[in-house]
Please model this.
Amino acid sequence: VSKVEAKAEAKVEAKVEAKVEAAQGAAAAAEGVSAEHIEKKTKALTLEYYGLKEAGLKEAALCVAELKLAPAQQGAVLGAMAKATYTQKGDLSALFKLMGDLVLHLLSRESCAEGGGSPVFGEEAVANGAVAIIGRLTDACDDLPRAPELVGALLARLMLEGPLKLAGVGKAVKEADEGDLVEWGPGLLLVCQILRAVANSADEAKAKALLDESGLKLDELLGADDKEAGLAAFLEKKKIDLAFLA
Model:
């Protein structure tokens, strides 16, 4: 092995060790809080909040704050909220709107129990939450085909009113299920639903600007069954109007 190769290998090993140490540090920060505990507590507070609606907003935020989670685990709260919402009866669009209300409240200073200081959630929590939700989307679609539409509306709102970035969502879509969310699942459909929701809530120019800023190419998200027919055929099949992108 040459000196150059040895130095290159040493650099790679150092980077790997640094990543392992960082992961261990994050795990230590959240020690004692299991994924099962987060999901159980989140489901309970979410269902109670949905029963009370707007009147239960501050109490639900306080329950989230009391979990005392590190940002790396706060995303699991959003994933568990979405999972609990999928199985509810009634107007799911309204329930996902309530979920969005809670997430945006957690991003505000009003979510702090003392009425000041730092919000319960920050940008990292929301980004991690989007990853958690997207990671479960294929399973959600098995029982609820509308899941991409509902999640798309939620994520669009968190882009327009919160810190979520379409580029991050696109990255999560590409990486979910080791690429299978794009190849065989509703990856492209989710992104299209986000753009349609942004166009409906804001305007079509805003949706186009978000896509341009993200660097995402919709045709690169076409799954195995749609690549040959192309993007236009996919949009027609799914009845999604994104003509403003042309």
